[in-house]
Specification:
Layout (H helix, E strand, L loop, with lengths): L3 E5 L4 H12 L3 E6 L8 H9 L4 E4 L5 H10 L2 E6 L6 H6 L1 H22 L3 E7 L22 H19 L4 E7 L1 E3 L18 H9 L6 E4 L11 E2 L1 E3 H17 L2 E7 L5 E2 H12 L5 E4 L14 H7 L7 H14 L7
Helix pairs in contact: 1-2, 1-8, 3-5, 5-6, 7-9, 7-11, 9-11
Bound molecules: nicotinamide-adenine-dinucleotide and uridine-5'-diphosphate.
Length: 339
């Protein structure tokens, strides 16, 4: 068995897929998750993909005593820190809960790692730290202008980890700024299943395709984009997962801190996603163009060239595959892991 990697939030959407990529690369994932936004049944699904069930600890990343025990008892070589809350609207309504989970949680984790002498950390940041960028593709050097408490929480943790690495140069830290993760593992056994009405485009489109929702509300058709709808950089979740493995390998080579965009470098509009999904699924997606969603940025996509130069990582999977894999998961699991 290879090095043990603690995966906080490993029962969630990106974390579960990263466990698959870790196992494929010879690492042993150890999941810590409070199941606040996930389902323990993901562990059985992971066992079917990986061949053995990853070890799963139900607990909170803010529980310092639990972390100390884990670091004492398990041969943890590094940590991938996904655990956090991610709904922008909720963060506006309840900022303290967001700062407590995302910022305080990261501080408790970093302090426990420092005490245990575990100094390799891959952190889930987000392109949301850029806010409304001056231009796209966005390089990592672009101004950081988060526009809501969720984005602020990511920026605060980035800053704190940079300060930590500066104070203690033995740390090996990667801050990974994801663009729009979508898709699912090609097996269709794991995927994203938001609770309640989906906020995000791809889960909503999936639920229309499977008949759970009547039609997609397209949030704005009058943006200054080629077809008037919003443009984002959608990236396949397995590409993201493999980016984390590449970041771990890079961290193993040398101490330091890297900040990297993980995206495809290409934007797709809402209607392009709808059309690609229709091709992949053979279903018609009913939609209606409505008003803009407050706070939405018209268009942005990332410049992933630094990740390629630094990690040798590049997104391999295109929009058609993102849609085909999302659809396979949705069709086989219309009610998520309850299905
Ligand atoms: P997710 O909600 O599916 O996964 C997060 C997991 O963390 C969940 O399983 C949840 O139960 C767990 N969790 C939350 N707070 C916890 C705590 N205090 N202790 C232990 N476990 C806790 O979300 P995801 O899409 O997989 O996102 C993973 C990370 O990536 C998050 O930090 C998120 O902010 C970041 N991110 C996500 C996106 C996206 O669009 N999905 C984009 C950029 C960044
Ligand atoms: N979107 C939409 N209808 C929906 C959900 C999203 O038209 O039901 C649009 C949204 O306005 C944006 C794009 O799809 O242009 C991606 O939105 P998502 O919420 O998935 O990601 P984010 O905007 O947070 O990057």
């Amino acid at each position: 068995m290879g090095s043990t990697i603690l995966v906080t939030g490993g029962a969630g959407f990106i974390g579960s897929h990263t466990c698959v990529a870790l196992a494929a690369a010879g690492y042993t994932p150890l999941i810590l998750d409070n199941l606040g936004n996930s389902d323990a049944r993901v562990v059985d699904r992971l066992a079917r993909i990986i061949g053995t069930a990853p070890r799963f600890i139900e607990g909170d990343v803010r529980d310092r005593a639990l972390l100390d025990k884990l670091f004492r008892e398990q041969p943890i070589a590094g940590v991938i820190h996904f655990a956090g809350l991610k709904a922008v609207g909720d963060s506006v309504a309840d900022p303290i809960t967001y700062y407590d989970n995302n910022v305080h949680g990261s501080f408790v984790l970093a302090a426990a790692m420092q005490a245990a002498g575990v100094r390799t950390l891959i952190f889930s940041s987000s392109a949301t730290v850029y806010g409304d960028p001056d231009s796209s593709p966005i390089p990592e050097s672009a101004a950081l202008r988060p526009a809501n408490p969720y984005g602020h929480s990511k920026r605060m943790v980035e800053q704190a980890l940079a300060d930590l690495q500066h104070a203690h140069p033995a740390w090996r830290i990667a801050l990974l700024r994801y663009f729009n993760p979508v898709g699912a593992h090609e097996s269709g056994l794991i995927g994203e299943h938001p609770q309640g009405k989906p906020n995000n485009l791809m889960p909503f489109v999936c639920q229309v395709a499977v008949g759970l929702r009547d039609k997609l509300a397209v949030h704005g058709g009058d943006y200054p984009t080629p077809d008037g709808t919003g443009v984002r950089d959608y990236v396949h979740v397995m590409d993201l997962a493999e980016g984390h493995v590449a970041a771990l390998r890079h961290a193993a080579q040398q101490p330091g801190l890297v900040t990297l965009n993980l995206g495809t470098g290409q934007g797709a509009s809402v209607l392009e996603v709808v059309k690609a999904f229709e091709r992949a699924s053979g279903k018609t997606i009913a939609y209606e163009i409505g008003p803009r969603r407050p706070g939405d940025v018209p268009a942005y996509w990332g410049d992933p060239s630094l990740a390629q130069a630094t990690l040798g990582w590049r997104a391999q999977r295109g929009l058609e595959q993102m849609c085909a894999d999302s659809w396979r998961w949705q069709q086989g699991n219309p009610r998520g892991y309850e299905s």
